[in-house]
Specification:
about 110 residues, mainly alpha, about 70% helix
Length: about 110
């Protein structure tokens, strides 16, 4: 779409005029280091959530939740509680770790 404007250009009252030299010193956006730090933190939190889920799954097994029939009584309550505590991202990761460990120990 081409824009054609023949009248006087009207700028907002609070605009700032910058010369070409000043534009060389204007920085903006996010650095690659910040992006890598954010991604690293998210991966670390996900790994910690999964490991915590595995630890809880192992403890549940040794506390008597050693068949899938016993786990079925508490499964949905545990899932809702994990999502409430860990949010929509880390709650399911926790539950995956828990159930992977729990089911791997069941016969």
């Amino acid at each position: 779409m081409e824009m054609c404007y023949d009248g006087a250009l009207v700028m907002p009252s609070n605009y700032a005029v910058m010369s070409e030299d000043e534009m060389m010193y204007v920085d903006g956006g996010i650095t690659i280091e910040a992006v890598c730090s954010i991604i690293g933190a998210a991966i670390a939190l996900g790994g910690a959530s999964y490991a915590a889920g595995q630890a809880v799954g192992e403890r549940l097994y040794y506390k008597g939740i050693n068949t899938s029939k016993k786990w079925a009584k508490y499964k949905w309550q545990a899932r809702v509680a994990a999502i409430a505590a860990g949010g929509n991202v880390y709650g399911p990761i926790f539950i995956i770790g828990l159930e992977n460990k729990l089911y791997s120990k069941m016969k």
